[in-house]
Write a structure and sequence with these properties.
Elements lengths: L1 H7 L4 H30 L11
Amino acid sequence: MYAVIWRLLPGPAWVRVLLVLILVAAVLHSLATWIFPWVNTIVDNQEVTVGAP
């Protein structure tokens, strides 16, 4: 899968590395901005049970 993405990116290797870093940053930013807050509203983290020995 990563080889396909690498072949689809234009330019020499250093441009591809730069584009991959930009894409990874965009995905992480999207996750932190929209996905994680949305999941936090669904998951109730107040009902955590830790078993006592």
